[in-house]
Amino acid sequence: MPKVVIVGGGFVGLNAAKGLGNVSNLEVTLVDRANHHLFQPLLYQVAMAGLSPAEIAAPIRSLLARYRNIRVLWGEVQSVDLAGRRVIADFGELTYDYLILACGARHAYFGHDDWEEFAPGLKNLEQATEIRRRVLTAYEEAERTKDPAHRKRYLTFVVVGGGPTGVELAGAIGEMSRFTLAKDFRHIDAAQARVVLLEAGPRILPTFDEQLAARAVRDLEHLGVQVWTQSAVTKIDAHGVEIGAERLAAATVLWAAGVTASPLGKQAGLEVDRQGRVIVEPDLSIPGRLNVFVAGDQALFTHQTGQPLPGTAPVAMQQGRYLARLIRRELAGKPRVPFRFADKGQMATIGRSRAVLEIGKLKLSGFVAWLVWLVVHIYYLTGFKNRLLVVMQWAWSYLSFRRGARLIVSKEWRLPGPASPTATQPAAGWSSPEPISTQAKP
Amino acid sequence: MPKVVIVGGGFVGLNAAKGLGNVSNLEVTLVDRANHHLFQPLLYQVAMAGLSPAEIAAPIRSLLARYRNIRVLWGEVQSVDLAGRRVIADFGELTYDYLILACGARHAYFGHDDWEEFAPGLKNLEQATEIRRRVLTAYEEAERTKDPAHRKRYLTFVVVGGGPTGVELAGAIGEMSRFTLAKDFRHIDAAQARVVLLEAGPRILPTFDEQLAARAVRDLEHLGVQVWTQSAVTKIDAHGVEIGAERLAAATVLWAAGVTASPLGKQAGLEVDRQGRVIVEPDLSIPGRLNVFVAGDQALFTHQTGQPLPGTAPVAMQQGRYLARLIRRELAGKPRVPFRFADKGQMATIGRSRAVLEIGKLKLSGFVAWLVWLVVHIYYLTGFKNRLLVVMQWAWSYLSFRRGARLIVSKEWRLPGPASPTATQPAAGWSSPEPISTQAKP
After folding, report:
1. E strands, A295-441, in order
2. I need a surface site. Which of A87, A148, A296, B378 has the fewest CB within 10 A?
3. Rounded distance between C-alpha atoms, residue A124 and residue B98, angstroms
4. Which of A127, A267, A424, A432 has the highest number of chain B CBs within 10 A, making it the mutation to test binding with B?
């Protein structure tokens, strides 16, 4: 019986598995380091205390429970033996007839890995809840400090990277400051918080139409966000950021720039580009190995337009479904066809009532664009229950301007400086040891 | 203008603050180490992946935002200067005219603080999510291990303490094993999980009627829980527990026995009993200081029945409201009256469709009792949105036997033993450094 091994339970892995579910005479094993599938486009909502983790994530084995030919194993694949047709994971080995690598991407700090401690990225739930804690804690610290310089630093938030993720984070912090938290504090005016979005290039949202990007800038400014272009960060430390000769004192810095693929591709001896993405053929296989595929953010696919496909959710979803179809067809003796991406466009939200959206020649902005964004994301959200909960949570939050999940949980994070001596231990890092990247998602 | 300082944002603090909200010419400051108020009776639901943290917790400053005379400060009170009428917190000092200490209780391990690492208690969200992680991880480890002895240990869960909290935790794990996870695994039969509830005394639920307690035992056994009475734990380590000469190999041990009050009472030089509870007068004040009150789990009140009032939510709520009324009356020149607790009874659930309930002479069990429990807890859950979300979450979970929040997030926890070499770091502890206790809650 042919065996398919899928490494990664994200958009590629989940869709590939579903497409192979209950196919007769086929055994599928999916391995992931996390027990849950994450709907990454909404991860910034968790980071900004708008949604709870369980509203955008579901256990992988639950999602695949109905397919008796699929088993899910929680673990980490550490290397691939191409000749021996097996993957080596922390719990043991798995042999395969077909292998799909879809381990995604992580943040990169342009060689400055020491920045990671001070500027978390947004790629998984641990980081999202860490960011949430830092942002909420900053307001609490600002409320109780008597030092005006400290207060100013606590009320300064810097987001590095002007792609969709950075725009969404900055807009959400601006909106939180101006609306959600407005009445909750007595010593600070949360609306006085400074939110600065730093982009190294000449404009934010470089992949979008210029006018849409300009509209986004105006919408951000309405939420109190300052957009600094041509501002490449040269240093990040506990006190803030440096942009060349300039310095911003900020308690909270978030990283939404710089991306690199999972190191597994390189570890497996595959040919990768500078960002670690594995170069794949038109059918997503690796050169010389028809039964090994790489897809999603981990792959570099240039055969359609000459340019790499972006690391976005629709690309990953389509590639996952394509691979399932390819394997089913091949088992039935049919030939392969190349992968073709059907471009569904790109979107970015600014706060809870504005967005910019571009699909081919269609360009939308404002509230209409946000409604379209809402419908699309709810549609794709995995699982009916999640959809219902998310709609309810947002409806509540939208009508009342309250953010639903404003909890500070777990490790505290404190700035060095006039230390607040507390019994709980300050910790400035988080659990994942590798640098992680953020990839622009619609 | 008189100042009231409230230390602790639990049931006492929140209700006291609300009772003093918008009272003219009164300034209230509430301090808590967490930014959120926690509905503790439902904490075990978070631990058992039935609810998300945000469904049972809300930011304190949100709950009190509408009262302009109340400010909320996030911080930790470290000592009390009774003569100088001030509390010293990590962020500075606060002077008071009235002081309410309501810091709650924490776990105690009968002198064996080293047990805490292996047997977390359930008193806050950090512990609840840690327990959730350990329980879910145990199933994942069982699924992927090839060693039968390991599998057995991973599928063995021990709950120490036969009060309501222990009963609720054990019943929930039993139910999760038999129903929720039944179809999700391929190598294990989750229903074969062993759940053992250890009680040192002659029976579980010692404060309940004997017949109700016997009914609870039968309901637990239907969920696959073994109830061991007269079984005092003598040792807990990474491999399991010892009960005298017997030994149980268990990957997951949960602590629901042993309680001690917050150390602040003793630190402030107040008279405390052996469990650290502050001895209070009939009006909840401390001897010799009419303007300093201690209430909730942190207080020892024996004036009504000769026995201490239990550390439960209704006691705390009523005391909080009482104190607000006392202060309001006193400011209007009226005399004090002693505190009288209106006993609302006690309850404990067993799984999601059974409970035992005792109010005075009324004794209920089975599904009817569970319905009453449901209505009562939803009614008292803070905030309309939370209520609606919780009802929806439970309705979904009840109808589909799925548990809504089965996410493994954050630090991994691994047993020592044939170590799984992974890149992420194992961590056997969690963030709070002080031992925490669990207090029987209805």
Report:
1. 299-300, 346-350, 354-359, 362-365
2. A148
3. 46
4. A424
pLDDT at B54: 85
Position B427 pLDDT exceeds 70: no
SS3 state of residue A58:
strand
- Output the six-digit token pair for A372: 């379209």
* pLDDT tens readout for residues B182-197: 889 999 998 889 999 9
Q: How far apart are CA B387 and CA B399, in angstroms?
A: 18
CA gap A162, A205 in Å, rounded: 6
Name the strand (E) or helix (H) holding B394: helix B384-400
Q: Which of A141, A168, A175, A281 is catalytic?
A: A168
- CB contacts under 8 A, B 115-144 vs A, are 125-126, 129, 136-137, 140, 143-144
The pLDDT of residue B398: 63
With contact defined as beta carbons under 8 Å apart, do B125 and A407 qualify? yes
pLDDT in tens, A97-135: 999 999 999 999 999 999 999 999 999 999 999 999 999
Q: Which of A167, A292, A171 is nearest to A224 (CA)?
A: A171
CA B430/CA B15 separation, integer angstroms: 30
| In contact, A408 and A137? CB cutoff 8 Å | yes
Selection from B341, B330, B339, B343 nearest residue B284 by Cα: B339
Whether residue A288 contacts residue A267, with contact meaning beta carbons closer than 8 Å, is answered with no
d(CA A321, CA A14): 9
Relative orientation angle of helices B210-222 and B164-175, to the nearest 10 degrees: 20
Q: CA–CA separation, B311 vs B317, rounded Å? A: 11
Torsion angles phi and psi, residue B97, rounded to 5: -100, -35
Structure tokens at A240: 């803030």
Q: What is the mean pLDDT of chain B?
A: 87
Q: What is the pLDDT of residues A374-411, one digit of tens each?
A: 888 888 876 656 777 777 777 766 666 555 677 777 54
Amino acid (one-letter) located at A416: P
Residue A420 has pLDDT above 70, yes or no: no
Radius of gyration of chain B (CA): 22
Q: What is the DSSP string of B135-173?
A: HHHHHHHHHH---HHHHHHHTEEEEE--SHHHHHHHHHH
Of the candidates B91, B392, B425, the beta carbon closest to that of A420 is on B91
Mention every residue, 6+ apart, whose C-beta is less than 8 A from residue B156: B193, B194, B196, B240, B248, B249, B250, B251, B252
Residue at token pair 């409806």: A395
Strands (E) across A168-251 are located at 194-198, 225-228, 235-237, 240-243, 246-249
CA dihedral A197, A200, A204, A209 (to 10 degrees): 180
Alpha-carbon gap, residue A438 to A247, rounded angstroms: 24
Q: Tally C-beta pairs within 8 A across A and B.
A: 174
Please indicate whether residue A403 or residue B330 has the higher confidence score (pLDDT). B330
Chain A residue with minimum CA distance to B125 = A409
Other residues' Cβ atoms within 10 Å of the Cβ of residue A21: 16
Instruction: State how far the Cα of A142 lies from the Cα of A185, in Å rounded to an integer.
Output: 10
Which pLDDT tens digit goes with each residue over A325-373? Answer: 999 999 999 999 999 999 888 999 998 889 999 998 899 999 999 988 8
Per-residue pLDDT averaged across B313-334, rounded? 96
Q: Which two tokens stand for residue A221?
A: 């400014």
